[in-house]
Structure prediction request, 375 residues.
Amino acid sequence: MNSVSYFKESDLNSYSGIKELNSDKYLNKLSSGLKLIYSEFDENDMIEDLKFIPKEKFISFNLDDKIYQIPYKLSHIIDSIDDSKEILKLQDNWDEEGANATNLLTYNKSIFFLIKYSKFIFDKYNQILRKPHIDLTRDGSVSILWDTAISSFLIIFKRTENEYAYFYGKEKLPNVPFKYAIKIGSEIDEITALWMQKNLI
Amino acid sequence: MDAEKSNLDSGDSLPNKDKVLRIVLNTERDRRNKIIPAIRCFTLSAVDKIEGFKLSVDWDQKTPPEETLIRVGLTFRGSGPEYKDHSNREVFAINIDFLRGLDGIIDVIYNPIFNDPPINGRPNNIAHSLVEFRKEDYDQYEAQIFTEIRSYAMNSKLIVDMNFVNEQVTNLRV
Prediction:
């Protein structure tokens, strides 16, 4: 699997303290799913890169052949990502009405957004986003939906080479829309993050 | 299914007071996550865009929901001879006035499909209609419009007599 230019690991690290683990020793031990770092490895297994981790539980996950960590309190976000992997198996015409399959590049763009914003909101506001639903649209784009009792938020990452991902948020009572876009691969948009931490927790 | 004479011509706008029916595919994952209907069911495929940014629906004045699902069960997958699975679909009714009020929708028009003689695996559909979307800025408004359509549809699922549907599909398949 090739690395993808949309993903800047430095973006994740700079905001979140997420540390990429390059060790083959760990790659061999971690499966593609999530595992608790401290429950999985004893101290002798620790490599130098892990020494920065505070004494709390983290989970790790695979994205684009690299392993990242996020706080255990965001494990439901990883659950939603694991659940969404089914959409990568769908072939063209998956609905028997001419719908298109998605691809790994589009999928990874959406997952990178989800992790980046979830972690930023956790770090900066100490807020935990609710579990989203990741799906594809019929043109092969990937959507992330939050739908809570008080608000909803839908963002769509196009399968085509779009520079932006457009979204629509809505507070339900009163009905106040929040419509905007993020530039893919750019720094965190703090206005969007602020709205998300207020309405999607 | 006998064709009923329509008083509208193909391309005419449907009346605001009526509804259109959208057939929705529900997957095991949708049911597990309680995301019904899923956003994707109302979005456009690449082919829909090539053909003018139009979404297929049925006009409720020309078909009961059972008949929409029977037509699915009588339609070939691709060139056939295998038929589509109708059992994992549900039908949602959406008010035409509501659709026309959404920014990004141009119109809802009548578009009957009628072949004489009928073509096996491609049943006639005198209820067939199209929701026309504005193509110039589709990417920019789609998140909003499909959020609104799904919110509406969450309360508009139609109860369908699946025993009747299954019986008809079995009897009518060649």
